[in-house]
Design goal:
mainly alpha; 0% strand; transmembrane; membrane
Length: 48
């Protein structure tokens, strides 16, 4: 049913790598944004 050979992997592997890379980039991007929002909120609190 799921016959995987090297010719099918030639097109399948890069697609999976791209999807995995996008997930990793999104994860780290969200962490970065949360930290920056917290910093901005702290700075705004100090200026009041």
């Amino acid at each position: 049913m799921f016959d995987i050979d090297k010719y099918s992997m030639i097109s399948f592997a890069p697609s999976i790598l791209i999807v995995a890379a996008m997930l990793v980039i999104s994860f780290f991007g969200l962490r970065f944004m949360k930290r920056e929002i917290a910093k901005d909120a702290a700075r705004a609190q100090q200026q009041k």
